[in-house]
Amino acid sequence: MEKICVAVRVRPAVTVSEDTTVNGTYWKVEENRISLHKSNGTPIPGISYAFDHVFDESCTNSRVYELLTKDLIHAAVEGFNGTVFAYGQTSSGKTFTMNGAQNDRGIIDRAVKDVFNKIHKIYDREFLIRVSYMEIYNEEINDLFAEENQKLPIHESLERGVFVSGLKEEIVSDAEQVLKLIQGGEVIRHFGETSMNARSSRSHTIFRMVIESKGKDANSSDYSSSDAIRVSVLNLVDLAGSERITKTGAGGVRLKEGNYINKSLMVLGNVINKLSDEAKQRGHIPYRDSKLTRILQPSLGGNAKTSIICTVAPEKLHVEETKGTLLFASRAKRITNCAQVNEILSDAALLKRQKLEIEELRKKLKGSRAEVLEQEILKLRNDMLKYELEREKLEMELEEERKSHKERDQCIKEQQMKTDNLNTRVNSSDGDKSSSQEQNDGKQSLEEFSGNNIVFQDVFGTPTFKAAPNAFVGKRSNYSRVRDFSPLPNTYNNVADEDTWLKMNRGFVADLDSIQMTPAREFQSFPSSDVTLGYSTENYKVEVQNLKRQLDLVLEEKNELEQKHLEQLRLNDHLMGEIAELKHEVVLVREIPQRLCESMASCRDIYKDVLLTLQSFVPDGDSSIGKFLAATSEIGLSLFSNLEKVFLYGNGRSQIFQCE
């Protein structure tokens, strides 16, 4: 674990020193500390910051690179991930620090040359270097090596981590080739002019070098010098500066660019704030809120060596922005990264590593503590056997538990089927009881018909599914099955003669063959009359009691519904009253602007009368008092007219709302 290296660089003052010192404050650099002082040299309490490095106005890019970046570049060649980026307000010197000038080359130029110089001094490894150059303009990623690659997406995988899909990578062999590619990318990068900077960066740029290396000696016994491949990523970032619209005077496209720049830098500040807190208090870290922080996620609190250069402006005009930058740097200084060499091992390399570890363990066993180590090994083996037995036991118990669960489920299903069968039988028995009751009634009707020669009643009509008031008796269909049990006496045949038909159906003549007959039903024999009468009486009593209970329940529900209806009516009346009161208040509020306009008109008239009265008392020779009264009159009249316009505008809006 190591902390991020943070440095502050103060650019030279653009204006004369009187703007920064006379009747004001200035920033003073003392070794690795920067503090705000008054014009008389007295430090202001609470505004003092200490960092790893603090560079004053006279510092060059060469010194910044030697003290801050050189070790990180060498570590990248050795297999560590590295990131360097400049942060600060607009026109504070970030692009100059990263890209430099002709007489003072920047960090990117020096880092590229230093990488190749370092590689040429390493003879036992082979290197492959790939470079890419991108910009983040208005939260869209553009490829600076291929102008046609615009709006590239960000993806993440286990093998590559966070990467930009579709970004062009160039394989390079020397520093001059890389610098030419960078110059070509700078041509299509977005720059603009503001009131603070003639050539202001309008996008964030990330120059990335992927350094791969592999050992040359394939016969060596060391796994790291043969099949292990080291892959490191070096990011050199030039951030666009935060800016205030009141100072830059931006508008239109520049205003939109500034909004996107400030948003991404704000997200970067939020990420730094979260990472600077303790691990237990961090919570969610919003890497995905900005594409800049998403790409730099491994460099912020991850597997990388990171250096931050915060550039500030010394002028009095930019004191607040400088304080914000220094506060950002102070929080970033508390972030810790866990950088390690990135190696990709093949199967052969893994086998060699394991062999070396076995050899080291054997050497330890041959030492003075061989017996102790053997005992520990035996103990570990016994523990492993014990855990294995416990695991098998638990598996057996789990299997038995599963079987018992299956048996329980089967029993539950069987019980459910039995319950369904019982319900079916109960329903069928109820149907049989009702059919027996019908048979009893039919028997009584037959007796009445045979004894008294009364006309055959409609009770013994042919069973049918149609709900007809009077059923007809006719010849059975040839396709219907003969009943096993019939409610009719044996004296009746399957055919009713014409006289009986006319009597039963009151003279109606119908085609007996056209009548659709119902399917055959199975009936039971008639029970005894005594049993039937007793059973029907008891059923009637039970049904009457049930009907009474249902009637009571219905009456109770009716009473509850009536109560709820009354409560709803009372609530509606209350709401209607409140709505009427609100409407009355709305009418009163809408009348306020008109009343205010009338009051302002009367006040204006009174004001005119007072001024006329005062002017009448002014002597003719006193011109100064007359001018003063005239000016006062104009100011007051303009004030009253503006107030009347405001009230009229408010009245007009209220009328519009009323119309809507």
SSE blueprint:
Layout: E1 2-3, E2 5-10, H1 18-21, E3 25-30, E4 33-38, E5 43-50, E6 53-55, H2 61-77, E7 82-88, H3 94-99, H4 107-120, E8 125-137, E9 140-143, E10 154-157, E11 161-164, E12 170-172, H5 175-187, E13 191-192, E14 200-201, E15 204-215, E16 229-238, H6 245-248, H7 253-276, H8 291-295, E17 305-312, H9 319-332, E18 336-337, E19 343-344, H10 347-365, H11 370-452, H12 498-504, H13 529-617, H14 623-659
Parallel strand pairs: 2-6, 2-17, 7-16, 7-17
Antiparallel strand pairs: 1-18, 3-4, 4-5, 8-9, 8-12, 8-15, 10-11, 13-14, 15-16, 16-19
Characterization of the model:
The model is unreliable at 16-23, 220-225, 445-477, 484-492 and 521-533 (pLDDT under 50). α13 runs antiparallel to α14 (623-659). The longest helix has 89 residues, at 529-617. The strands form 5 sheets. Strands 2, 6, 7, 8, 9, 12, 15, 16, 17 and 19 form a 10-stranded mixed β-sheet that branches. Strands 3-4-5 form a 3-stranded antiparallel β-sheet, with helices on one face. It is 51% helix and 16% strand. A hairpin with a 2-residue loop joins β3 and β4 (33-38). With 660 residues, it is of the alpha+beta class. The protein is built from 14 helices and 19 strands.
